[in-house]
Structure formats: structure tokens, C-alpha cells
Design brief:
Layout (H helix, E strand, L loop, with lengths): L2 E8 L5 E9 L2 E5 L5 E5 L5 H21 L5 H9 L19 H12 L8 E5 L2 E4 L12
Antiparallel strand pairs: 1-2, 3-4, 5-6
Helix pairs in contact: 1-2
């Protein structure tokens, strides 16, 4: 199995929002007998199995943070009970075939995009710039 992960530190409004975007291989690589490798698509992982992954990742991550003494056990228990603790999510709707380079490029560009999009920055007066959000903020403000 393989994955390419991208760490993002900000949200669309440049607010602190640490999260990962990942591109994961749907299967495994195995030797092909000629010194190379071939990929085999994973079988039997349906929507029910995919739905269990975020919960399992959350539980294991919190447990690892406690084991490494980066979080107190009481904090891990409290965080495990948080209503929004289900913010671990998995979006498996996008699928790109192994030989589809034209489909893979926009996905990787999306995952690797910088936090600060220059096309959203505009000058409103000499020396004054505003950064426009893609989504309205408080009271509908977009800047």
C-alpha cells in the first residue's frame, strides 16, 4: 500500500486549521517475476468498511499521542467523547485509474496547493490589501 500525504496548516480564511490531504493507492504492489512490480486493486472494501476507517484512525492516533506522552490519558478520554471528534473524515469519491495522468494531475495540484492563494489577494487602496475568502465568513463577509 502507498500514500502521499500533504500537511495543511490553514483553512480557506487563513485560519489555523491543521489537517492532511492524502492520495492513497487502492491496492498493493507485488513483484511481477521479471524484476518489476505490478499493482493489484484492493477487493472487498466497500462503503461500510471505508466508513470505519476515520474512527479507527482517530482512536489509534489519540492512543499513540498518549503513549508518547504528548497528551494526558484524561485528555485522550475527553477528546474521544467530543461530539465533533468525528471530524476525521475520508472522501473516497474521487478515483483515478493508474494510467490516468490527466486525471491525477488536478488531484495532486489540489492536495499540494499552498495555503495562500495569490489570486484572492487584491489591493483596495495604496498599501492596503485584502484577502478574499472562497466562502462567506461572519455576517456574510468575504474579505
Amino acid at each position: 500500500m502507498g500514500e502521499l500525504a500533504f500537511l495543511h496548516r490553514f483553512g480557506a480564511r487563513l485560519n489555523p486549521h491543521g489537517h492532511f490531504h492524502g492520495v492513497v493507492v487502492n491496492g498493493v504492489f507485488e513483484a511481477d517475476g521479471a524484476g518489476g512490480a505490478r499493482s493489484r486493486t484492493a477487493q472487498g472494501l466497500g462503503s461500510e468498511g471505508l466508513a470505519e476507517i476515520p474512527t479507527e484512525v482517530r482512536v489509534r492516533l489519540l492512543r499513540a499521542l498518549a503513549r508518547c506522552e504528548l497528551l494526558e490519558r484524561e485528555d485522550v478520554q475527553a477528546m474521544g467523547a467530543w461530539e465533533h471528534g468525528r471530524s476525521f473524515s475520508l472522501d473516497a469519491r474521487v478515483r483515478v485509474e493508474a494510467d490516468d495522468r490527466r486525471g491525477l494531475e488536478p488531484l495532486l495540484r489540489y492536495c499540494a496547493r499552498p495555503a495562500f492563494a495569490l489570486e484572492r489577494l487584491r489591493e483596495i487602496a495604496h498599501g492596503h490589501r485584502v484577502y478574499e475568502s472562497v466562502r462567506p465568513g461572519l455576517e456574510g463577509a468575504s474579505a
